[in-house]
Amino acid sequence: MDFSKLTSCRGKHSLHEMIKAFEIFTPIVRGNLDLIEQMAFDFCKRQAEQNIVYTEVRYSPHLLANGGTLNGVGKVDPIPVLDAVTKGLRRGEVEYGVKVNQLLCCIAWRPDWADDVVRIAHERRNDVPCSIVGVDIAAGEEHFDKEKFPHLYEPHHRAFKRARELGLNVTLHAGEVGESEHVKRAIEEYGATRIGHGYRIIHDTKFMEHLRKSNIHFEVRRCDCQIYDYDFISGCIIYLGHYSYYVYSTFYYTCRHVLQAP
User: Fold this and answer.
1) pLDDT tens-digit profile of 17-51?
2) Structure pTM?
3) Could you say which DSSP state residue 170 is in?
């Protein structure tokens, strides 16, 4: 089968299908620090080619470390991955004249990593250039459901309470495939000042107006219309764009691009 088809969720209209694609290509680079550094460098090149002068690239150093899996157990060492990415980004900044900072992701199904992500983000926040400027939770929204998934909610909620105490910036995936209520929880319970995707909030225009007045940014992508096939996404993006429009980039897309290149 064509590798590009294995690592694409286009036409499948599902976040979980996208995550399955990650499980195919991520193991190929996991723990390969030289390759990870090169991909970070190549990421800067791609941003420069698209005339993007500033990026906050998000990824999970734990997931790219040896032993890091979405549903596994046991400790991993994310620091070598973080160092490799940072080294590649710094080389890329010099070579291509772009500016790149980092957002570290927790993984929804790995609550055991949450405290570590916040700790590392705090320790490296002033390690410039290419410093860590915030934290996120990716790979699902189940952690917002404290009744059904308390084992996911409690560690993440505790870690992000600590993030707020430390003054870390918080951006969360919410309302992407979950309920609009997840956007509210991301802001009110987790302290998010930016929301990844957030399309479901379109069903609550009163709260949307409150977010506009609160200067909450939404990170949205037009290509999500093709990924999820939501009838309302295109109009939602236009609607959100009147309030705040923030384009973000993800290291894993560069990972996939490099792996399937000739």
Assistant:
1) 777 777 788 998 999 999 999 999 999 999 999 99
2) 0.86
3) B
